[in-house]
Amino acid sequence: MRVVVLGGGFGGLIAAYEVRKGLPSRHEVFLVSNAGFFVFRPSLPWVVLGSRRPHQITADLAPALHRRGISFVQATVERIDPERRRVMTTRGDIEYDYLVAALGAHLDREAVPGLDPHTDCIMWLDDALRVREKLERFAGGDIAVLEVQGTPIPCAAYEIALGLDAYLRRRGLREKTRIHFLTHAKAPFDVGGERASYLIARELSKRGINWRVNAPLARVEKGWVRTEDGQAFRADLILAFPPYRGTDAVLRSGSLADERGFIPCGATMESTRYPDVFAVGDAVAFAGPKSGRMAELQARVAARNVVSRITQRGRYRTYQPHLMCALDMGAGKGLFAYRRETAGQGPAFFSTAVTGRWPVMMKAAVEKYFLAVHF
Ligand SMILES: Cc1cc2nc3c(=O)[nH]c(=O)nc-3n(C[C@H](O)[C@H](O)[C@H](O)COP(=O)(O)OP(=O)(O)OC[C@H]3O[C@@H](n4cnc5c(N)ncnc54)[C@H](O)[C@@H]3O)c2cc1C
Questions:
Q1: Which residues pair with residue 38 across a beta bridge?
Q2: What CATH number is attached to the domain comprising 176?
Q3: pLDDT given for residue 354 in this prediction
């Protein structure tokens, strides 16, 4: 049998490792990725704010995969043909018996008029480096951080806004800069639960950040952000966290994808339309926030279930969603938020949050541990 994993992020990497561990060596495991390296994306805000260099948060895929007996194909996936069990790539077609799609997502830059030309979005390493350069040249003025309606990564938006405050203080520019934080949400960071929201609101106020809730964006223009209720904010630098859409490769894959390019799955991570296709991470059509932690948990479930199907042994697993977020608020202070969902991604039935130094230490430890263990 051949298992093909698409994508070399959290989801793809963990799925490939776990499938390989679970299957006898006569079965083949392939990983296809357009990038030759893994990026620990939770550390991108640290790249923006100057406390990480690219080499500290990236690792080469090829040697790590080869050591584990996984064949690596560096190629771009053009589309998946689930009827013929085939993946079309820039380096030829690859047939599969089971597929794990972990291709992530693209930013939906059309979500709000003007987002694309007038804002910087931090999605990948090159974005983070571009924003870092802009910040290095920044000499004071107005900066707007936008948690755009529908974004699945609210944590990163708060991390950047609060981190900017600390960064600008270090550079002696805080007095010369106004930071605006705009969110569509009813309360800041409400996705983390009531206590997390209270703690973040307190911190935003303490740092003198001009934060506005219930402020969905209407449009962005050069140097201006306009909200649906008619407010306008001037900004020299606009950092936006927009919603996602599915990747072009999945969008081109016919009925595998929904209309936005995400793959509908059940809690077993199996496609609702093609039982030999599993999907994990940002590529899945689950509502709500998306994170590396969720991608990793989903990958373990998908891998276990692929192995069970092939070996006809072991129980089928299901994914239990929860949100766990260690957020660096800058100036040595962090927030840890945990929220457990009800089954089927319903409303949270438990949430808690604490602040202090240790969430930052925890975030750094997770980064080091993940890269050391998997590469
Ligand atoms: C600024 C920022 C901060 C974040 N902070 C956190 C955090 O603190 N904690 C947390 O848990 N999560 C965080 N996240 C979210 C987390 O990074 C993502 O949810 C996670 O990376 C998703 O993993 P994935 O494997 O599903 O997809 P991705 O990480 O997007 O990986 C997709 C992979 O597929 C490859 N690929 C894409 N298209 C193709 C194609 N056509 N052909 C071949 N290969 C392709 C890519 O190169 C990549 O290897 C953050 C995200 C951002 C942007």
A1: 59
A2: 3.50.50.60
A3: 86
